[in-house]
Amino acid sequence: MKQANLPPIPRSLKAPLRDALRALSGVADLSEEALEPVARMVPEPFRHAVRDTLHAMKQATVGDVVSRLDRDQLAAASGFVNGAAEGADACARMMGFAWDYLSARAAARPHWMFSEAVAVAALRKLPSDAGTRPALACRAVLTSAAIGELPAAPVVQAAPGGHTPESLLTAAIVWLLTARADSAEEELRLLDMAAALCRSIPAEPGDPADTDKLNARLRMLAQHL
Questions:
Q1: Residue 215: CA atoms inside 13 Å, Cβ hemisphere, count?
Q2: Nearest to residue 214, comparing CAs of 198, 225, 191, 194?
Q3: Cis previous bond, 202, omega within 30
Q4: What domain of life does the UniProt record list for this protein's source (predicted)?
Q5: CB atoms within 10 A of CB 11
Q6: What is the pLDDT of residues 167-214, one digit of tens each?
Q7: Number of domains, the chain
Q8: Is the same domain home to 93 and 179?
Q9: Continuous segment of H or E residues that includes residue 39
Q10: Cα–Cα distance between 98 and 169 in angstroms, integer?
Q11: Averaged pLDDT, 99-107
Q12: 44: domain range?
């Protein structure tokens, strides 16, 4: 296999994972040797997320997903997760978009479904505390009936390191928390990276019940995008 010619790697990066993906987004042939220098740009366990996302880029078939990403809705959803009073409806819609996108790309399609209508109802009831909005939004949706199993679908345990309902929702919120990208294609790469980060850095025991701890984790993950 022909070795890919990688662009030079800067000594310091303001947003390492985002910049690593942007630098490699146009490289068609990514061998394991080519990925290694990029993985070394960031410490463990983030380098696993870099590898996972770059491999996903190799196999990506975006199709009409880009055209279905409403960036106005995305901006409103991002504002809501970051503390704005308005945007609950947009937030639920973008959670649903992220859920569908990540589920479609999973090696084994999850057998869960996501109800935007139920999620909207849960998000509209959130208090106005902007500081803990990410954690409150995550908990509100997880404890609602927004996530359920597909009727008559076989119950399949998530593979080790694979997606769970919690990781899918967490990835969506981390994606919404981060700074918006310049294009829809870059937004999808950020969503892939958010999912990889959430799998690489599992929640510690007690995170879902501890608002401050969950909030800190979500914001920490978003800062690395």
A1: 15
A2: 198
A3: no
A4: Bacteria
A5: 6
A6: 899 999 999 999 999 999 889 989 988 998 888 877 766 555 688 889
A7: 2
A8: yes
A9: helix 32-39
A10: 8
A11: 80
A12: 16-58
